[in-house]
Specification:
4 helices
């Protein structure tokens, strides 16, 4: 959201830090993770999925990735 025209890349510090935070939250909640659980690539893909429902992005005639689901729409509406 801080730079919608050019979101951070898969290997950017912002994506890496968010991945680490999400994994820490899983651990604190007692959820066993795997190597792919909320890894930087997954965090990046989720960001790109959310662009498909961002009205600022879609109003420019852009589509984003359509592989997201109903839960992403709910999250977008809440935040």
């Amino acid at each position: 959201m801080t730079n919608p025209a050019s979101p951070p890349g898969k290997e950017s510090p912002a994506v890496t830090e968010l991945s680490a935070l999400l994994n820490k939250l899983h651990r604190l909640n007692g959820v066993a993770g795997s190597a792919t659980l909320r890894n930087p690539n997954g965090v990046y893909m989720k960001m790109i999925n959310l662009r498909a429902i961002d009205p600022t992005f879609t109003s420019q005639g852009k589509a984003g990735m359509k592989s997201g689901g109903a839960l992403e729409k709910d999250v977008w509406a809440d935040y």
